[in-house]
Design brief:
The protein has 158 residues and is mainly alpha-helical. It contains 5 helices and 2 strands, in the order H-E-E-H-H-H-H. Helix 3 crosses helix 4 and helix 4 crosses helix 5.
Protein backbone atom coordinates (compact mmCIF):
# COMPACT_ATOMS: atom_id res chain seq x y z
CA UNK A 1 0.00 0.00 0.00
CA UNK A 2 1.50 3.33 -1.06
CA UNK A 3 0.70 6.67 0.42
CA UNK A 4 -0.48 9.37 -1.99
CA UNK A 5 0.89 12.89 -1.76
CA UNK A 6 -1.50 15.77 -1.26
CA UNK A 7 -0.99 19.37 -2.37
CA UNK A 8 -0.23 20.35 1.25
CA UNK A 9 2.97 18.30 1.20
CA UNK A 10 1.55 15.60 3.46
CA UNK A 11 0.91 12.03 2.53
CA UNK A 12 -2.54 10.46 2.86
CA UNK A 13 -1.40 8.91 6.13
CA UNK A 14 -0.74 12.32 7.71
CA UNK A 15 3.06 12.25 7.69
CA UNK A 16 4.91 15.19 6.20
CA UNK A 17 7.58 14.64 3.61
CA UNK A 18 11.13 15.04 4.85
CA UNK A 19 13.28 17.70 3.31
CA UNK A 20 16.82 16.86 2.38
CA UNK A 21 18.09 20.25 3.61
CA UNK A 22 16.68 22.77 5.99
CA UNK A 23 15.33 25.95 4.45
CA UNK A 24 16.86 27.80 7.40
CA UNK A 25 20.29 26.20 7.26
CA UNK A 26 23.40 27.66 5.67
CA UNK A 27 23.32 28.12 1.95
CA UNK A 28 26.28 27.07 -0.20
CA UNK A 29 28.72 29.93 -0.79
CA UNK A 30 29.57 30.78 -4.35
CA UNK A 31 32.92 32.45 -4.97
CA UNK A 32 33.33 34.70 -7.98
CA UNK A 33 36.85 33.38 -8.54
CA UNK A 34 35.85 29.73 -8.64
CA UNK A 35 34.45 29.69 -12.14
CA UNK A 36 36.74 28.38 -14.86
CA UNK A 37 37.65 30.84 -17.56
CA UNK A 38 37.10 29.91 -21.18
CA UNK A 39 39.74 30.24 -23.88
CA UNK A 40 37.76 33.15 -25.36
CA UNK A 41 37.76 34.97 -22.02
CA UNK A 42 41.55 34.62 -21.81
CA UNK A 43 41.87 36.03 -25.33
CA UNK A 44 39.56 38.94 -24.49
CA UNK A 45 41.55 39.69 -21.33
CA UNK A 46 44.82 39.54 -23.25
CA UNK A 47 43.46 41.91 -25.92
CA UNK A 48 42.07 44.25 -23.25
CA UNK A 49 45.45 44.39 -21.45
CA UNK A 50 47.28 45.01 -24.74
CA UNK A 51 44.87 47.86 -25.49
CA UNK A 52 45.24 49.33 -21.97
CA UNK A 53 49.04 49.09 -21.59
CA UNK A 54 50.48 47.92 -24.87
CA UNK A 55 52.89 44.99 -25.12
CA UNK A 56 54.72 45.84 -21.90
CA UNK A 57 55.69 43.27 -19.28
CA UNK A 58 54.03 44.01 -15.95
CA UNK A 59 57.13 42.77 -14.09
CA UNK A 60 60.16 44.16 -15.96
CA UNK A 61 58.50 47.05 -17.81
CA UNK A 62 60.14 46.21 -21.16
CA UNK A 63 58.38 46.38 -24.53
CA UNK A 64 58.02 43.15 -26.51
CA UNK A 65 56.20 42.17 -29.70
CA UNK A 66 52.55 41.64 -28.74
CA UNK A 67 52.51 38.09 -30.12
CA UNK A 68 55.20 37.06 -27.59
CA UNK A 69 53.40 38.42 -24.52
CA UNK A 70 51.86 35.85 -22.18
CA UNK A 71 49.12 36.09 -19.57
CA UNK A 72 50.37 35.47 -16.05
CA UNK A 73 48.37 34.70 -12.92
CA UNK A 74 49.66 37.08 -10.25
CA UNK A 75 48.39 34.72 -7.55
CA UNK A 76 49.40 31.28 -8.86
CA UNK A 77 46.64 28.83 -9.81
CA UNK A 78 48.50 25.70 -8.72
CA UNK A 79 46.28 23.44 -10.81
CA UNK A 80 43.01 24.94 -9.61
CA UNK A 81 40.38 26.76 -11.62
CA UNK A 82 40.28 29.61 -9.12
CA UNK A 83 41.82 33.04 -9.68
CA UNK A 84 41.09 33.17 -13.40
CA UNK A 85 39.58 36.64 -13.20
CA UNK A 86 40.95 39.78 -14.84
CA UNK A 87 41.94 41.16 -11.46
CA UNK A 88 44.54 38.37 -11.16
CA UNK A 89 45.96 38.40 -14.70
CA UNK A 90 48.73 40.56 -16.18
CA UNK A 91 50.80 40.58 -19.36
CA UNK A 92 54.29 39.19 -18.84
CA UNK A 93 57.23 38.46 -21.08
CA UNK A 94 58.24 34.83 -21.38
CA UNK A 95 61.37 35.40 -19.27
CA UNK A 96 59.49 36.93 -16.32
CA UNK A 97 56.63 34.45 -16.59
CA UNK A 98 58.98 31.48 -16.45
CA UNK A 99 61.04 33.09 -13.65
CA UNK A 100 57.90 33.57 -11.58
CA UNK A 101 56.44 30.15 -12.42
CA UNK A 102 54.30 29.10 -9.40
CA UNK A 103 56.20 31.21 -6.88
CA UNK A 104 54.11 33.27 -4.48
CA UNK A 105 53.88 36.84 -5.71
CA UNK A 106 55.41 38.28 -2.53
CA UNK A 107 58.53 36.13 -2.90
CA UNK A 108 58.85 37.03 -6.59
CA UNK A 109 58.51 40.78 -5.94
CA UNK A 110 60.91 40.76 -2.99
CA UNK A 111 63.63 39.13 -5.12
CA UNK A 112 63.71 42.29 -7.25
CA UNK A 113 61.89 45.39 -5.99
CA UNK A 114 61.65 46.98 -9.44
CA UNK A 115 59.12 44.27 -10.29
CA UNK A 116 56.78 45.69 -7.63
CA UNK A 117 57.17 49.16 -9.11
CA UNK A 118 56.20 47.96 -12.60
CA UNK A 119 53.38 45.78 -11.26
CA UNK A 120 51.96 48.81 -9.45
CA UNK A 121 52.13 50.77 -12.69
CA UNK A 122 50.72 48.15 -15.06
CA UNK A 123 48.51 46.32 -12.59
CA UNK A 124 46.03 49.01 -11.57
CA UNK A 125 43.23 46.67 -12.68
CA UNK A 126 44.32 44.04 -10.12
CA UNK A 127 42.33 43.34 -6.99
CA UNK A 128 42.80 46.07 -4.36
CA UNK A 129 44.78 43.69 -2.13
CA UNK A 130 47.30 42.81 -4.87
CA UNK A 131 47.62 46.41 -6.03
CA UNK A 132 48.19 47.67 -2.47
CA UNK A 133 50.87 45.02 -1.87
CA UNK A 134 52.73 45.99 -5.06
CA UNK A 135 52.43 49.69 -4.27
CA UNK A 136 53.64 49.22 -0.69
CA UNK A 137 56.66 47.19 -1.84
CA UNK A 138 57.49 49.70 -4.59
CA UNK A 139 57.49 52.72 -2.30
CA UNK A 140 56.16 56.20 -3.02
CA UNK A 141 56.30 57.69 -6.47
CA UNK A 142 54.23 58.64 -9.49
CA UNK A 143 54.24 55.08 -10.83
CA UNK A 144 52.50 53.74 -7.75
CA UNK A 145 49.59 56.14 -7.24
CA UNK A 146 46.38 54.32 -6.39
CA UNK A 147 43.51 55.35 -8.71
CA UNK A 148 40.97 54.10 -6.17
CA UNK A 149 42.03 56.60 -3.49
CA UNK A 150 40.69 59.43 -5.66
CA UNK A 151 37.13 58.22 -5.26
CA UNK A 152 37.01 55.79 -8.17
CA UNK A 153 35.47 52.47 -7.26
CA UNK A 154 37.39 49.32 -8.09
CA UNK A 155 35.43 47.14 -10.50
CA UNK A 156 36.52 44.14 -8.43
CA UNK A 157 35.87 45.46 -4.92
CA UNK A 158 33.76 43.05 -2.94
Amino acid sequence: MTAKKKASGRTSRGRSRRRKTSPYGPKPVEHATSHPTSRNAYQETREWLLKEHGPICAYCGKHFPSRTMTLDHVTPRRGQTAYDRRDNLVLACKTCNSAKADAPILKFLLEKRSRARFLARYGKHLSPMLFKMARDLAGPGPLTDNPFEKGEASPYAD
